[in-house]
Specification:
By secondary structure, the protein is of the alpha+beta class. It has helices spanning 34-50, 118-122, 124-133, 198-211, and strands spanning 57-60, 65-66, 77-78, 82-86, 96-97, 108-112, 137-141, 148-154, 157-160, 169-171, 176-181, 184-188. It contains four helices and twelve strands, in the order αββββββααββββββα.
Length: 219
């Protein structure tokens, strides 16, 4: 019979292991925090739901945009946190290659700020999107501090967007407002109505059916 010996709890963990602080940003280049990921998914989900009958746009997050004048993927590339291209086919892509997309650059870009990227987003990327991409609408948002700003390209230069009475900023390219709702950035219609997620739409429909004494679970 083999006799095994159990280690005491304190012996199971090496004294050489140093546990990192719990508030570290991820080193992964794509998504830095859970809130960053939730924000990107929310923007993508709501726009695709709102435009579910449209096939003339492309929206993505954390996807590389290749824009080398030499048409080389090894140089001049950038991956915005979220972007929308209009007047194109709504197909899945491995990346956005400008010279394979009729020279199209994003019409809307949103960067999600973090302590490690905020300076680059406010300065270098803003200049790049203004002078090279010529992206008409550029926004940035910090889901932790709720810093939110937007710019529209006018005569080749970004001009700050003025918020309406609700603090929302207008995107001329999307025909929608962007504004903070429950700590995250959401779309609003020109009339100021929140653009729902598919789940929110289903919940609203279910509530209306219950008002009519109809059980939505039986339909």
């Amino acid at each position: 019979m083999m006799i095994t010996q159990e280690l005491a709890p304190e012996q199971n963990i090496s004294e050489d292991i140093i546990f990192p602080p719990s508030d570290l940003y991820s080193d992964e280049p794509s998504v830095e925090t859970e809130l960053h990921l939730r924000q990107i998914i929310l923007l993508l989900k709501c726009l695709e739901w709102l435009w579910k009958d449209r096939y003339d746009f492309y929206a993505a997050g954390n996807l590389t945009i290749y824009y080398s004048p030499n048409q080389k993927k090894s140089e001049f590339f950038r991956g915005p946190d979220f972007f929308v291209v209009l007047g194109t086919e709504r197909n899945t892509r491995k990346s956005w290659v400008v010279w394979n997309e009729d020279g199209k650059y994003p019409h809307v870009i949103l960067e999600i700020l973090s302590p490690t990227t905020a300076k680059t987003d406010r300065e270098y990327k803003k200049q790049l999107y203004q002078d090279t991409f010529r992206t008409p609408d550029y926004f940035w948002f910090d889901p932790y501090t709720l810093e939110f700003a937007g710019f529209h390209l006018l005569d080749g230069k970004y001009q700050p967007l003025e918020a309406n009475e609700k603090g929302h900023l207008w995107s001329e390219q999307l025909g929608l407002y962007l504004g903070i709702h429950d700590g995250l950035l959401r779309y609003f219609t020109p009339a100021g109505k929140l653009v729902p997620t598919p789940e929110e739409t289903a919940e609203t429909l279910a509530a209306k059916l219950r008002e009519l004494n109809i059980d939505p679970d039986t339909i």
